[in-house]
Amino acid sequence: MAYSNTHPAIAYGTTPDVTTDHFKQQILRACDYPLPSPTSRRYARVKVLLLYWDNDHLRVENEVARMRDAFLQGYHYSCEIDRIPAHGNELPTTWLTRRLVNLATNMDTSDLIIFYYAGHACTGTQYQEGPCIFLSGTSTVTCYDGTPTTAQEHLDFSKVKAVTLDPIKADVLYLLDCCHASTAAIGPGKELIAACTTIEEVVPGPSYSSFTASVVEQLNSAANTGNFLTAAQLWFKLLDTKSQGKLPRTPVHAEAASGRSSIFLAPLTAAAAAQISPYSLSGTDPIPLGWKKSDLRAMLSVRLRDGNASTMKQWLTTQRPHGIGVSV
User: Fold this and answer.
1) Residue of 260, 204, 263, 256 lying closest to 75 (CA atoms)
2) Confidence band, pLDDT 50/70/90 cuts, at residue 38
3) What does the alpha-carbon distance between residue 257 and residue 94 come to, in Å, rounded to a whole number?
4) What is the mean pLDDT of residues 51-71?
5) pTM for this prediction
6) Closest C-alpha among 292, 323, 282 to residue 39
7) Rg of the Cα trace of the chain?
8) Is residue 278 scored above 50 in pLDDT?
9) What's the order of all strands across the beta sheet hosting 252-255?
10) For residue 68, how far is the Cα from the chain centroid?
């Protein structure tokens, strides 16, 4: 049999044993990434930009407002709703580029930007750069060689974010409630929660069971209970909502490897929030009260090259990551 990069010889043989140290590193990485811990960092500033088209073909205005209220009231983030001009004096791509450059100005490693979009979208290709996503102000989209036939009511989101938000030092969370949402690639240290997989592609419009409605429900629940979430945990909860038949499409989470934990969606400190939020605070920093035990269960079977059963049992039960329960 001829082997290739997609079908290597290792795929047809026995998986090589791993060392105990390597196993521990991978377990710690896998467990630490999605879970918040008592030392999870809080952002100095958080800016939320919520976008939809000014012609509002899908009538998403009310859902966008509810998303803004969730971030503003429960987390005291700085929120702005803006409408993409479908027939303005400048092309939508030019408008969004300028808007995101202004948004990212002076944002640093201690800051977070949340980009939310609700509306239509289509996909194409960027020559040698792979799939891309176009945000669209109309449901009628005709593409040729991956590019919309007209510049009005379309913008190349993949290209715009690649030169505006992806390269910046601040963390960025993309929330896309649109068709083909998971097509959007992201830059290093950035995260994406998309409304659907590449297989499902099409997302229903606004409803009580929409992607946006489900995200808002989870954000409000976290704020009301004090069980604040990372972006990865938010996605887990959306998957659970989908498994219960309350979400019509399967949400997708993507993270560009950066060696850090998932973005932690906790309220700003009182001092920072007081400068941007009209909602009164108690004067003390809002502190996460803890996290409920997850219902997630996983069973691992691994063969360690230098493993010792009693040593591994002790390590798993006494030095496990924060928030993880282990039964050996």
Assistant:
1) 263
2) low
3) 29
4) 91
5) 0.73
6) 323
7) 22
8) no
9) 78-84, 45-53, 111-118, 171-177, 190-194, 252-255
10) 16
